[in-house]
Amino acid sequence: MIENKNQQRTPLSQLGEFGLIDHLTKNLKVKQNTTVKSIGDDAAVLNFANKQIVVTTDLLVEGVHFDLSYMPLKHLGYKAIMVNLSDVYAMNAKATQVTISIAVSSRFPLEALEDLYSGIEAAASIYNIDVIGGDTTSSNKGLLISVTAIGEVLAGDEVYRSGAQPNDLLVVSGDLGAAYMGLQVLEREKEVYKVNPNNQPDLDAYTYIIERQLKPEARKDIIALLKKLEVKPTSMIDVSDGLSSEIIHICKQGEVGCDLYEEKIPLDPQVISTCEEFNIDSTTVALNGGEDYELLFTISQADFTKIKGNPSLTVIGYIKEEKEGMHLITRANTKIPIEAQGWKNF
Ligand code: ADP
Ligand code: MG
Hints:
By secondary structure, this protein is of the alpha+beta class. 32% of the residues lie in helices and 24% in strands.
């Protein structure tokens, strides 16, 4: 499981900063017609004509957001892009460009950064975005990656967290809790590996949840689907911190309440079986796990027939008046107030 990279280890000092930037970015191709000037000057030049621009940034820090003992660098590069594209799609926008800034310690050879950039290249190619710049510098310890994503959206098409109305339906894409349970499995295997490095773990039963942790996908397809179905959400957010925290954002910003139905929360069978094995409640995992990168949104009741029966979308609750509060309706039909947990990085 711990990556067996090729044996070559070229020190970064051998290339120098400019040589390194050239080496890492030489395969990146411009695909978007809004990119006028990409990497190579003091700044990139973009032309969006009459479109609105969305911009979002995330910073990933080794030891806080990722652990390289089970996160291959290629996956890390891919995930760093996904985390940002997910935010662009959550605005109902099309992602078009990213910039990537990295700080690396001398512990990383060139080959490690090549792996990182192969993941970035894969993401850029699959999601049809341009890498238009960045910054490269050294760090005393560990790896930091900051990605800024840029997207476009026609005026009036953007969707904020704030637009939910009483009686709207609360909808989520995909399923929840898998990335968190994947992390639990990886953490357990890391401990086993520490005790016995020769022990080859059998992870067949966990392939889906591990993939959700190591190689998440931003839901570009859901934005396209909603467009095709002619559904414009009244509010939207991506699920990065966990369902409960995102629901609270939608409700607070929209000045509304909600009822969330426990029995409706979409869970993959691997999440259910792994929760049983770890003796963790699967609803708690879906509510507080995070890193699902699904889209949570609200739609008008009038749009229900358009999404009904779609396997990628699940109605999980209803928006209520603000004074009614935010509640989870359990399988036993009791009402529990929804509270945020989210990621506790601090
Ligand atoms: P400056 O001194 O103006 O900051 P740099 O030498 O840092 O310029 O960067 C040269 C070019 O390479 C710029 O276009 C910059 O955006 C790009 N660049 C630098 N680092 C990266 C990186 N890690 N990934 C992608 N592009 C990068
Ligand atoms: Mg620079």
